[in-house]
Amino acid sequence: xxxxxxxxxxxxxxxxxxxxxxxxxxxxxxxxxxxxxxxxxxxxxxxxxxxxxxxxxxxxxxxxxxxxxxxxxxxxxxxxxxxxxxxxxxxxxxxxxxxxxxxxxxxxxxxxxxxxxxxxxxxxxxxxxxxxxxxxxxxxxxxxxxxxxxxxxxxxxxxxxxxxxxxxxxxxxxxxxxxxxxxxxxxxxxxxxxxxxxxxxxxxxxxxxxxxxxxxxxxxxxxxxxxxxxxxxxxxxxxxxxxxxxxxxxxxxxxxxxxxxxxxxxxxxxxxxxxxxxx
Length: 279
Known about the structure:
Layout: H1 17-31, H2 33-51, H3 57-80, H4 98-118, H5 120-123, H6 126-133, H7 139-146, H8 149-170, H9 172-179, H10 183-196, H11 198-226, H12 232-263
Helix pairs in contact: 1-11, 1-12, 2-3, 2-12, 3-4, 3-9, 3-12, 4-8, 8-10, 9-10, 11-12
């Protein structure tokens, strides 16, 4: 925690807080399931519509993600103070601090792109080649390519280089909208706070992997073993689609829960007094 009053103060936590963030986020989701499902579906539909724009769609979607993320942060902030998550909040980022939110999206695109291109330093360009030609390759060819040890090293190298980019942008939108930080300061503060809380973040990542990948895979495998092949896929879809929606909502809410825990520890919540959203 910095002693410099000009810097944003944050709190360091032990490892178990990583699971606590998910538990608290799920508790908020459980209180307003329908509102969050509607809000989340609208969020993903908007992202898909952006992605469908020819040529620039994928880039526009990624750049605008922090802007739409503000709406989800505002919904959690509102609910925590006795309000109800509403669709109108999804567009709050376009009305507040847009000039600081867009650079965060640009930083993410540039950072991940640089990390991917850097893979050429260790794999001789094999990852870039695979990404460029994947659309024209068969499933068998892709599987064979992924078995290349050099390519695997390149993917790992890119993933490691991407970590600072991801954690720098994780709390940055919240710092912009709730604490009026500029883009650069928000990115740097998010990075510093995340590094200081690497233990709970590591546990958080492991919990996300377990609930988001390992558990669904286990359930799918068990169903495939005990049910006839004719009905097993239907049962899997019936179980995992709602689960995926609930899990995604919990993840998005955990962005706010972890932010508030790290940057506003111990603060008393004031009830809503008007349409303004912010601490």
